[in-house]
Amino acid sequence: MSHKIVRNIERVDPTALRELQNFGTATLHEAMGRSGLMKPYLRPIYDTARVCGSAVTVSCHPGDNLMIHAAIEVCRPGDVLVVTVTSDSTDGMFGELLGVSARAHGVQGLIIEAGVRDTAELTNMQFPVWAKAISAQGTVKSTPGSVNIPVVCAGVLVNPGDAIVADRDGVVVVPKERVNEVIQAAQSRTCREDQTRERLAQGELGLDIYGLREKLASLGVVYQD
After folding, report:
1. Could you give the CA distance from residue 57 to residue 11 in angstroms, rounded to a whole number?
2. What does the pLDDT look like over 83-128, one tens digit per residue?
3. I need a labelling partner for 80 at 20 to 30 A (CA). Which of 11, 109, 165, 184 fits?
4. Would you tell me the crossing angle of helices 96-104 and 66-74 to the nearest 10 degrees?
5. CB neighbourhood size of 40 (10 A)
6. Mean pLDDT of all residues in the chain?
7. How far apart are the first and last CA of the chain?
8. What single string gives the DSSP state of each residue in 123-156?
9. pTM value?
């Protein structure tokens, strides 16, 4: 198997990223037809963590963070590291020192399908991380991998340069070729939700707003006093 580091990738336009970051992950997931959402075992290390940027993808051997070090060299300001492993791992593959290095090169945050450590220090730095586990288990730097290739992270295909949006509800991948379409769909959905929120606040029932009485009847549900 060959391994490579791709230096130059196509990224999402910064203006589009600024628009994307106005929406939560739940809204974007729904706007894409309920797609793009990574598995919920990826959790932020602090509740207020939020990130929006273009993905620099990293494929690592489990328990080996060599390729994360290699990836930082090709990152640009605003990027988000998306790290996968070739088999299951919860080892702490990213900690404070890598966080300091990543921050110095403009990396906005980290999505990692493995473990992370030094979470107190990373939280103090306000460096947002979504990880599968928190573990003090150390790693080595011995095994080749790849940077900026298509990867699957927490069940979702991520291509280099795709938009990553993450908050306390989860992590969403927006394919770079769909960003403008998704922004428009998210804006429309937000407007509809604002209208529905107002109706609910006035006392209307979701049963009536969403036409669910007819759904209940079609399913054979009957009311009894």
Report:
1. 12
2. 999 999 999 999 999 999 999 999 999 999 999 999 999 999 999 9
3. 184
4. 10
5. 11
6. 96
7. 69
8. HHTT--EEEEEE-----B-----EESS-EEETTE
9. 0.92
